[in-house]
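User: Run a structure prediction on this.
Assistant: Running it now.
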Amino acid sequence: MPRSGSSAGVFATALRNRSLLLIEVAWLAFNGAEWGVWLTMTVWAYTHGGAVAVSLIILVQLVPCIFISPYLGAITDRARAGRVLFFGLLISGLSMGGLAAAMALGAPRVLVFVLAPIMNVALSIPRPAQAALLPSVVRTPLELTAANVVSSWMENASVLIAPALTGVLLGLGGPALATGALAACTLVGAFMVLRIPGPRPLTEPGEGTSLTAEVRESVAAVWRVPAARTLVGVVGSQYILVGALDVLYVVLAITTLGLGESGAGYLNSAFGLGGLLGVAITATLVARRRLAPALIAGILTAALALGVLGIFPTVIGAFALLTVAGLSRTLFDVTGRILLQRAAPPHVLGQVFALLESLMDAGLAFGAILVPVLVGLSGARAALVGTALLFFVLVAIAWRRLRAIDDSADVPQVQIQLLRSIPIFSPLPAPELEGLARALVPVEAPAGATLITEGEPGDCFYAIADGRVSVTKRGRDVATLGRGQGFGEIALIQDVPRTATVVALTDVSLYSLEKEPFVLALTGHAPTARAADDVVAQRLEELEGI
């Protein structure tokens, strides 16, 4: 078996999980479509109004998302993340299809300018939903880290491949054909995640609570957590770099390096190639406790690469340094997102990533505005150095906070999501659920192992993270249980000996919960007690039927 810290080992760890495999393939389709459609829209705009139309199409797509993304995060937190991901991909695909039809039929340009922001708002939905969904489908914290690494690889692969494939489609049939093909990819991704609804919402919105009020409360909740506030700001800042480079590729290629218009695409691909080369480095993040040093190294290395390019601009140096910048940005992005999933409050995880989505759009817009100003004042070389200095200042401001976050970021997201999938615990409020998650103890058992024996005293409850177990009473089969289910509650709730025997049918990964925290959780929360009574009644009915 490959080592978990190797590239093959990370893929094996993440993709043995079927649900995770479907999510990652859908993620690849989504990211490819997102990058490709950005290109098709700018090409269409340029042919229908030149540079002014390009600037306008960018602004009409980005500005609405800056303000709407927090609402999308609130929807993610009050609904099943998998459902939000599906509908986000579905609406994105349908709106792309509408744009393709408008282009092909020669509809009035205003219609395209109306549909474009609708499509871009839809494209803002999958990212926070996917980030909120991952902890609910993985089985171990190791698998969560591997899933984030693979997601980043998929995203960087799309940066490298999608523009090239879109270019081929543009040559064959123009923006209409390219946009239609990208719409089809997105719709395929939507149907891949259709059967992955995700866990129940951690908290239900209060009666009569408006979405605006919920957004305000969620933003306030994120703001009250210094770790989440700092990480959202730091991770979101990377999009200033991306937005700046979107402009600098063109300026460098045409003005500074003399590569012509096609050179901008080649420089963009060098950045994407760097992201793919980050595979070897991000693989080492799996199972690593400390992530702040890697995050800081990623920021500083990307900034240093831009600064050196500004001071010594050469063709070979540009390709090499942009590759380094792409690699470092991948390291920056992956470590930041993992830390966010570790440190963010579980009940506002979707909101955290929606705020990050807002900052992404704001950062892209800010970078795209900042660079032309710097270029106009002092040229492309000064713009590169100025962008680099911005990130050195960021590190100087956030250094101590990032180290402190790294020391304390241990929110057990995987265990929380597992407990949420078990009916007994799903009614628990967020703080109590997190407390129980921290009390869980991991247990591994081989196939054939007896986990509890009928007639013995009961001292703990078991939650199944992976594998299957058989429940028998007096030697007769009662049930087969698997991931997201638990056993052992009857003896703890009714203070009686074990009522059945449970044997591992396969190698199983479980979490055990001692009797005291289990009983305290049930007795201290009425809805949970009622849910437990319902489960016990159902189990006893099954056992009495033997």
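The longest strand covers residues 460-466.
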